[in-house]
Amino acid sequence: MTVSYQYDVASSASGGFIRLLFRWRGSVWKVVYREMLLFCACYIILSLLYNFALTDSQQRIFERIVYFCSTFMDLIPLSFMLGFYVSFIAARWWSQFIAIPWPDNSMTRIQMFTPERRVVVESLHAGVKKGRNECAERLSTQHREFPLEKLVICKESCSALIMMKVEVFKMRYR
């Protein structure tokens, strides 16, 4: 869900950023509140156990366990692990971005090699756009994101042949 905050950010009222941070709709807190509550509950339980339920000798043993765990945390730095994670996510995003078929290159070449034939160029451009949308619909895991009825084809610039192809495609694959 996209939530627009541009007018709230642009205001120069004091405490604007804090007010924005605690807004619920589209908030960061909406995503992490369960984990935050679980962490706080575990922290409170451990703190109560340490302060009220354990004896002095048990508290020293608990402190040794905490020290032991903290020394192992320093062996593999968190920034090192985050670097691998970020590089993995960036590589995955880049491979998805590269896989998107962009009609710009083909349309530039078509425009270069068919000078002064506007009808032909517009017809080919409509076909390229139609092909890109068909490809997106076929490859989409959620078929409803790219419905056939909402193809981005400009009816004024399309030839009747392209519109007939769209109708044939609808009948064949529906």
TrEMBL record:
Membrane topology: Multi-pass membrane protein
GO cellular component, one term: chloride channel complex
Compartments reported by the entry: Cell membrane; Membrane
Segments crossing the lipid bilayer: 31-53, 65-94
Keywords from the UniProt entry: Cell membrane, Chloride, Chloride channel, Ion channel, Ion transport, Membrane, Transmembrane, Transmembrane helix, Transport
Source species, domain of life: Eukaryota
GO MF annotation list: chloride channel activity
Function according to Swiss-Prot or TrEMBL: Forms chloride channels.
Family: Belongs to the anion channel-forming bestrophin (TC 1.A.46) family. Calcium-sensitive chloride channel subfamily.
Protein name: Bestrophin homolog
Lineage of the species this protein comes from: Eukaryota, Metazoa, Ecdysozoa, Arthropoda, Chelicerata
